[in-house]
Structure formats: structure tokens, C-alpha cells
Amino acid sequence: MKSIKKQRMLTGDRPTGNLHLGHYAGSLKSRIKMQEEYDCFIMVADVQALTDNFTNPEKVKKNVFEVVVDNLSAGLDPEKITYFIQSEISSIAELTVFFSNLVTVSDLQRNPTVKNEIQEKGHVFKDGVVNLGFLAYPVSQSADIAFCKAEIVPVGKDQKPMIEQARRIYKKFNNLYDEVFPLPKGVFTEVSKLNGLDGRKMSKSLDNAIFLSDSLEVIKNKIMSSKTDTDNTIKYDTENKPEISNLIMYYQIVTGEPIEKIENKFSNNTSYKIFKEDLIKKINLFLEPMRKRKEYYIKNPDIVWSLLKIGNERANKEGQKTMIEVKKAMKIYYK
Ligand code: TRP
Question: Residue 45 Cα, ligand 1 centroid: separation in angstroms?
Fold first, then answer.
């Protein structure tokens, strides 16, 4: 039987903290589906995280482990996914250098994602003064995708300019030297949609998140003390009832039920308490298998590190193959 070669998918996570419900809705959920269809590469982007955490490498290292465990716990099967660490893959660093020639400084300064992030990270980049590493992270991200010739790249909508930048680099390389890189397709997910418990975007740093590792006790406290309005109807109306709409959104994520069905279920409801109690139950049911898996990996860290070792080896092999083609195309192959 002839097997059809799966397309390669690559995506990355910056190791900057525990994953929460927003990550699940924004990326993990679609990854769970994609692992069946594609040859999946998931990279822990520690080099990228260092561009704005270079004074705190210990934090980055600790979170490398965390982020892999969170992905595994969410149900991303290590048999189907190659997990690896960016800094372990030398071809990514090499490609970054070659790609740097194909991008202008003003391209990078104009990149909307970079511009936004520099603003958001005002505490790191005071008065918008930014280090070269951060400014150039779109170049290094282009290398992340290219080293293994990934064709499908799922990312948050905010990362769209990154994929466009990467495609421009590959086109330029292919035209200038030789056809080496496929032009990858971005698959964009709505990351910014899910709000935290205070109505702002769900984020670890804003202390408003439901983490995938939260215990029942913690979920109870968070949901019971979350803000609601006074009219006691379970209606999805982001304009007039933003707080309850947000909680309905959580309900939808953890149960997969359509919003209308949730509204109907609680149409005779006379108190938010009943809804909240049911929501707590549903969140807990959803998180339970994840917490169990997480517990297992936390108790067996060697399993995680050995998975990464295997993944690093596989990724490096792919990268070495690509680098030979790259160097031949660039006429700097000296073997
Ligand atoms: N910049 C991405 C983010 O913040 C993470 C990332 C790094 C990535 N390298 C990548 C995503 C390569 C896709 C492909 O979400």
C-alpha cells in the first residue's frame, strides 16, 4: 500500500508561563485536530523568549519544561508530535544569518506585530528603544519555519504579518538562489477573543486567567467571585452583558455546546449562582484529564526530557538536510 506523505505543520510557543483557557481556545484545540492530519513539529521558542527576557534566562529554562508539559497534558500525543527546543537546532541560527540579508531594517520596523509588541513591552523597551534581537525576531521566526520546510503554520491572528514576512523571505531566497523553500500557509486562530475574569484579555501577567492546571478549589473561587450584572438572565450579549457573556464563552469552550443551547438550558434560571455552579462543574470535568496527565509528567520529568531529546535529534536531522540544499543554492557548499 502506498502511503501518502503527510504535510508538515510547525508551530511554536514562547516559554513564558503556564498555559490557560485562552491558549486552549486559541491554539491547543486546533493542534489536537491537526495532529491527526499532519506531520506535526512543535517548537519551544526559547531563543525568541530570550529576546525580551535576556536578563532572566532561568525563567525561560523553567518554562521550557512547563510549556511542553502543558501541551502534552492538553492531549497532544508525543507519538504524533515532534517536540523540540529552538536553541538546540543549529540550522535555525544559521538560516537566521542568511535570511538577515534578505530583509531591511525598515521592513522590520514597519512590521505591525513587532511594533505592537514593543509598545506592550514598555517595561522592557523603555521609550521604544529595542534590541536588535527583538527587532529581528521575524527573521529568526522565518528560519524556525524554513529549517524543516514546514508547509502549514497555525498561529494567532496577531502573528499574520510574521507569516507574510516569512513568505517574502522565502520568495526572495528562491528567486535569488534556487527553489529551496515551500511557501507555507498560515492557519490563523482568534487568540484575542477570550477575555479573562476581569474582562481584559486573558493573560497570565494580568492575573485574570483560568489555568489548565487549576484545581477545583481554585476554579470555584475564581468563578464564584467573578463579576456579573444584576438582571440574572443567561444571555450572550457582549455589548450589554459583557461579564455573563464571558462566562458563557467559557462554558462553550469547555463543553463544546453552541451558545444558543447554553442559553436555552438556563432560560428558566433565576439566579447566576446555579449557572456558575454548573460552569464550575463543567470546567472541572474538562480540566480533570489534563491535570492527571500533568501530574504524571511532573512526577516523571525524565520522560519529558527524553521526548525532547528525540525531538531535537529528529529536527536537527531535518535541518542538516535543508542546510546542504541552502548552501548548494547559495554556492557556499565547500564539501
Ligand atoms: N511568535 C510566536 C508566538 O508568539 C511563537 C513562534 C516562534 C512561532 N516561532 C514560531 C509560531 C514559528 C509559529 C512558527 O506565538
Answer: 7
For the segment 241-265, what is each residue's pLDDT rounded down to a tens digit?
999 999 999 999 999 999 999 999 9
Select from 10, 13, 18, 23 the least CA-distant residue to 189.
Answer: 23
Residue 153 Cβ inside 6 Å of ligand 1? The answer reads: yes
Q: What does the pLDDT look like over 186-205, one tens digit per residue?
A: 999 876 578 999 988 888 87
Q: Is the CB of 78 under 6 A from ligand 1?
A: no
Specify the residue with its C-alpha closest to ligand 1, atom 15.
13
48 lines ligand 1 (CB under 6 A): yes
Residue 12 CB–ligand 1 contact under 6 Å: yes
Q: Is the CB of 27 under 6 A from ligand 1?
A: no
Fold designation for 216-295: Tyrosyl-Transfer RNA Synthetase (1.10.240)
User: Which residue puts its alpha carbon closest to atom 13 of ligand 1?
Assistant: 11
Atom of ligand 1 nearest to the CA of 144: 12
Domain ranges in the chain with CATH number 3.40.50.620: 8-194+301-329
Indicate the pTM of the whole model. Answer: 0.92
Taking only the tens place, the pLDDT of each residue in 267-298 is 887 789 999 999 999 999 999 999 999 999 99
Q: Which atom of ligand 1 is nearest to the CA of 140?
A: 9
Report the distance separating Cα 50 and Cα 136, nearest Å.
12
Write out residues in the chain with pLDDT < 50, as ranges.
Answer: none
| Predicted local distance difference test score (pLDDT) of residue 95 | 98
CATH 3.40.50.920 at 8-194+301-329, yes or no: no
Distance 12 CA to ligand 1 centre (A): 4
CATH 1.10.240.10 boundaries in the chain: 216-295
